[in-house]
Amino acid sequence: MSGDSFDWHEFLGRWQEEWVPRDDEDEYESEDGGQTVTPLGRPGADEAAIAAAEERLGRRLPPSYREFLSVSDGWHVDQMAGIYQLGGAADIDWFQDPYDMTPMYEENLGDNPREEDVLLAGMWQRALRLETDSDMSYALLDPGDSDQDDEWALYVYKGWGGELPDRYPSFRAYMEAMYRGFHSVRVERPDFENATTRAQDAHVEKARLLALRGRYEEALPLLEEALSFGRPRSAALLTQLRHLPAPQSSQSYGNLVADPRYLPEILPVEAMVPARGEWRLGGDDHWLGMMAARGAARKTVETVLSTMRDGTYRYAPPGAWGRAVAEARESARWGATDAAWRVLRDALPLWEAPGPLLIAPIGLLADPVLGPLITPERGREILATPRAGETGPAPEPVPDLDPPGLAWLTEPAANRWPLDGYRCVWAEGIDPSRLPDLIGEEGAGLSAPTDPGKASWRAPRPHEREGVELWEDRAVVAVGRTAEAWAFAFGGHSCHLNDLFLSPAPAASSSGRAVVVWRDPRRASRGDHPTAFHLSVAERGEEIYALTVRGREVQRSGAIPGALDPERLFRPEDTERDRELRVLEALHTELGLALPRFALTQGRLHTFTTTSWTRAPRSGEGFAYAYIGFGRGDRSRAAGPMRYS
To answer: How far apart, in whole angstroms, are the C-alpha atoms of residue 433 and residue 608?
Structure first.
């Protein structure tokens, strides 16, 4: 960045012309009692004075600082709680590290320091000190940290703060930042209006319209610059453009939470962090106090936080967009997340802004069912879609996230559960809401949509439930519907597939076919127990065929279709993953079975507790019940019943 390409006369003249005091300071009074404008600078130094300074220092000054001195020999920076006055050519001198900062910074370099850390450690002894009035702060130009234009980096060190110095790539960059700061601290003054404020406000309005037309990438730099000047509205608009591509991040929307036009979209989003239990500073009371300080009614805030925490909050905007949101939620709560997203995507142009400070349906993020659907890619697609009556080209649709079939269950880290076993019941042609009546424990009902993995992992174990026998294996399962119209009940944590196993397929097949699949992986804690796989198919209450494979041992019953013959699927020479993959592909091809990966691993689904997947031991049979704890504060789990001989 060369100082020759920058008009210091225009820049400093504009700064002087726009200067007004902060709210906490007064303008100077003249001898006759009238107010005068504070002179920020001094007449420029001539070439001889600058050359004399360079001779005294033994170095040629960097271009932007040299040009600055020729226009103004010093400047009243007025940086709050920092640098107040920059000296002129005769005032500057080498810093020479009077406080021995160098050893402290060198001690922290370590064995493989970054280049910027090495430069900072050496800066204290090399730097040129510019300020003549400050609050224990120093403006230091470092000749050892220079660029291709011979510009020196400028460091501002606030001795009272205990923080690393702020670095600016050049003197010009520092002065431009100070000019923006001058604007920011005066933005609340009603009389602070000038050509710069009007230009930045125009940029904000232009960015708002660009964002609504889907051209958010063009809007971003306009809003970022306006925010650096502290312009009203820029922060709220920019936060939305940053939040949707980072939906899990924590963002603050300032006083928008108190505006009734924006509260339905903004307040639930603000409540996401405390609702997840991630708010640590002072707990709920501190967060509620923060919202109240921004003008939100405490009772309203408490209600929203409560519904967010118990999962009952529903994003319910008005109009056609609201009807699409309701339709999408109905699809997503049964696992059809791609279909739900397509409904939202098609309806995005119908979204209407409740006021000029909202440019996107940010409230989607807070909905417990629809929020997880907004991935970073989909967040960017929302921003790239024209909406609120504006027009423009539609973006390229983000690809669907759910692969067909079941093969995804074999992928590394395809699910989030601690163990890689799973079991599932499919019932053909029925509404998934009927599954608790068919295979649920007594009184079972569907929960509110929840994280399936957490619901299963946190469920009480048999020894923790009154009236439940230790031999029972009741599973917490996630409920949904596949694209092929199978209702499913899926459990991502499985106990041991043992000889007491009782397939729920007959009970689930009262109206048609039902299929049960159970994969029980090999685990080191079980000694010589091999990986086990079970398949059973029933129709109208009767099991028609079944197979169970444990290592090389195969049990079979009924007329198993050739495509599912265990001799073909479980080849001894194949790896366990190859066998599992072949079985799952065959189940998809032969029976049309599938599972929605996104809903089960990242979404929210209804859950219920099934009847036991094991029967009571008969006379002469025994079982063992293992309880495994993972240490204080960790979850615990029952390994389930295991027959012993």
So the answer is: 10
Query: Residue 639: what pLDDT?
Result: 43
- Both tokens of 561, joined, read 């279709």
Quick one: tokens of 23?
């709210």
Phi, psi of 141 (to 5 degrees): -90, 130
Distance CA 494, CA 639 (A): 8
DSSP code of residue 614: B
Helix H segments across 371-410? 376-383
**Closest Cα to residue 212, out of 375, 349, 378?**
349
**E strand or H helix at 547:** strand 542-550
Closest CA to 581 of 545, 533, 522, 528: 533
| Distance between CA atoms of residues 416 and 481, nearest Å | 21
pLDDT, one tens digit per residue, over 372-383 is 999 999 999 999
What is the Cα–Cα distance from 181 to 178, expressed in whole angstroms? 5
Instruction: Tell which residue, 121, 167, 105, has the closest CA to residue 141.
Output: 167
Residue-level pLDDT at 24:
64
* pLDDT of 644: 35
Q: Which two tokens stand for residue 462?
A: 């048999």
Largest Cα–Cα separation, the chain:
112
d(CA 153, CA 148) in angstroms, rounded, equals 12
Q: Cα dihedral angle (416, 417, 418, 421), rounded to 10 degrees?
A: -130
> What pLDDT score does 418 carry?
43
How far apart CA 395 and CA 377 sit, in angstroms, is 12
- How far is it, in rounded angstroms, from Cα 211 to Cα 384? 8
Residue 640 banded pLDDT, cuts 50, 70, 90 = very low
Backbone phi and psi for residue 538, each to the nearest 5 degrees, phi listed first: -130, 160
The secondary structure of 550-565 as a DSSP string is ETTEEEEEE---GGG-
Separation between Cα atoms, residue 159 and residue 145, nearest integer Å: 21
Cβ neighbourhood burial of 368 (10 Å; 0-12, 13-18, 19+)? buried
SS3 at position 14: helix
Given this model, what pLDDT does residue 222 score?
Answer: 98
The 3-class SS string of 196-243 reads: HHHHHHHHHHHHHHHHHCCCHHHHHHHHHHHHHCCCCCHHHHHHHHHH
| Cα–Cα dist 605/595, whole Å | 13
Side chain identity, residue 345: R
Beta-sheet pairing, 131-134 with 41-43: unpaired
Q: Which two tokens stand for residue 483?
A: 């694209």
452, 490 in Cβ contact below 8 A?
yes
Closest residue by Cα to residue 15 from 158, 258, 182: 182
Per DSSP, the residues of 184-195 read HTTTT-TT---H
Cα–Cα distance between 458 and 466 in angstroms, integer?
17
Radius of gyration of the chain (CA): 34
